[in-house]
Amino acid sequence: MAVKAEAAPVRARRSGSAGIGRWIWKYRALYLMSLPGIVFFLVFKYIPLAGSVIAFQNYNIFSGIAGSEWVGLEHFRTMFAHYDFLRILNNTLLIGLYDVVFAFPAPIVLALLLNEVRKVVYKRLLQTVVYMPHFLSWVIVSGIAIGIFSPSTGAVNHLLGWFGIEPIYFLGEESYIRSILIGSGIWRDSGYGTIIYLAAIAGINPELYEAAEVDGANRWRQTLAITLPALLPTITILFLLHIGRFLDFGFERVLVFLNPLNVAKGEILDTYIYQQGLLQQQYSYTTAMGLFKSVIGLVLVLIGNFLSKKTTGSGLY
Amino acid sequence: MKKWALAGLSGLLAAGALAGCGKGEEPQVQADGGKKQETTKFSISMRTLAFNHVEKSPNINEDKWVKRLEEKTNVDLDIVLVPHKEYEQKMIQMFATGDIPDVVQSSGGVNGKEMAGSVQAGVFQPLDELLQKYGQNLLKKIPKDAWDNVSYKGKIYAIPEWLSNPSRRATYIRADLLEKTGLPVPKTVDEYLNVLRAFKKLGVENPYMGRENFKYADTFFGAYDVFPYLSMFEQAGDLVQPKFMDSENMQKALQTYKTMYDEGLIHKEFATINATKFKDTILSGKAGMWSMNANEMLQWQEQLRASVPDGRIEIIASPTGPDGKGGHYLYGSVTRGYFINKSVKNPEGIIKFFDWMVSDEAEQFFTFGVEGETYTMEGGKLAYKQPKTPQEVDEERYRQAFLWMVQDTTYNKGTLELTEEGKKLMSVYDTILANEGRDGITFEPRLETLTKNPDISPISDQAPPILLTHMVKMVYGKEPISDWPKAIEEWKAKGGADVIKEATDKFKNKDGVTMSRRK
Asked: Does the pLDDT value for residue B400 go beyond 50?
């Protein structure tokens, strides 16, 4: 090891590339360890990226990428000219926005609440209970939701009945679909989302709380002045990651709730891509849509990161 | 009449074949020629059809029935299963990766979506000459309709499994409940509605069982002959257009559903009732009338009895509309097709294998299984062991409907003839279903304007998405039914006008046109 380290600088003087080689050699253990990760990203993320080229072709699975006809921006033109494009984009943006406003803060609030539970046994029990829905598939979640929101047999309408309210066909009214989509997301995933926040809270120096107590701060004051600021970097990072997936609400969780009565306000780009691309084999057209979605996502991340760096000084990169 | 004669004849033949072959378990060589030398080896992709016995099998190629089939036909099969649920996607994946088996099973003709245009792309070989040489039985037994469905540019590309009676969906009624109402078997839409109202009075929760997207709940669209489905084009003046553009009848059909909705004759939440809930509700005795495939009849009857001991199911003639006719949409004449890969060098053995499938020996083997295990001979008569446990039922179904690759899939004559219920069902097929059903002008391949624009395109048994929304909303009273012409205008504006133009042009040029099978 030592001999090699001495020999390296001699070679390094000859050229710049040799300098990098020496650098890599010096930290070879680290590079070796990162290799699987690099290969993973190359094989599963970067190489498939090249497949996006079919967005500019009339892709045919028998001709392949090399043999398919090149049509340039035609699919993008079709997309922007489509009579339903604005409606679907609008749905996607609104649902994405509601998701950020309502679903993103939910785990933070839940984590703060869990943190205030005194009895450890009770806290553990609560944690387990709130994690659980995360492991249910969306098909099951939608089945449950359709059941409890049913006008004839559902618990919700039964409850409303006590207050003299007529049963409402929640899944048959387009005005409720977005709330149901966001609500079911919160119910399923906010518990699981608390894990990172609880870990961050556990890492806060207890001396801070002790000092605050000495100064006469109550729990509420401590939460505002210590816990939340300490959580802020975590929240920022998670928020930026969330923004990057702004338009990726996910197709499955929406698809299982849609029916002809609510599709007008519930259909999003993901479900549209699924129906047109996978079911109707319009591969090029839907790849163009997916590409459009990714570009918007990238722009949002760039803007978010820039703003975050300006205001808080920390960002994703 | 003819069918009865045929049934009798084939029964005789089966008995003859049985006497001829003695013990069924011994490895048998093809009767013709007696060539024992070479085993034909090939791989074949098959859809699991959601059959329990197939999907739960640890390795289908080791299954005893596959082994027996291989012995009988002197082939070595390598079955590649394709999951029933993701069938289309998996098939496309298979084509995209180029890992294509020697024989590919389709779920219909040349232009099925699962084939993804592979026939046109030249993945498979034409079979005309081979069939002339090695498939004479196939050519004799399979009707022309079915061959047309698997042909492309005048050449046959697959061996079809066919459906001689394409009227497959039927109107079911709870005969015990009908008796209680004291009403006669309904015929017209109005009589049907009266029966449904009487069911309601009896306290039946779902007089007519509804389901999301009107799937298996479209009986009354059939009465007015306005199915908004892919196979439903008709001539209207100079144009060839979809039947749902018949505004007058479509509005009547929608009004029928709205009446049912308003009076509680169909579930208020039918827009969110899925297939599982549909079946559960009916089998727990909470529905009075519904639509289902006729071949399910005996099983449903059996399962209903578990919860309602005196529940009786019957298939009755579907409601008739203004033209005095009715029925559900007709299925395609091909249920499964077998395409042979271009790269297969010796397809003769494969053709012979399929040719054997239509032989009497095959009918005997797949219907009754093997002697000593699934049937015994008692005094020269065959005594079939009726399957009892769910596993046995699954196994029978697998043998008769999955492994028997080429047959008339209308019904299994052999087993139905054994019971009274079965005989009754066969007569239902031949007297009721054969005389009803709706069909229209169809285009093969699918109209290009429809493939390009899925939003306005109907599928085999579902309305185009943009129309479906209006239909459901009209039944729920969220839009007036009198707005149907507006829905048609919307459909036209979003690309429907091009569809009508393409359909009319192709019709005039006789380009891929199949006429309606019902007058």
From this structure: yes
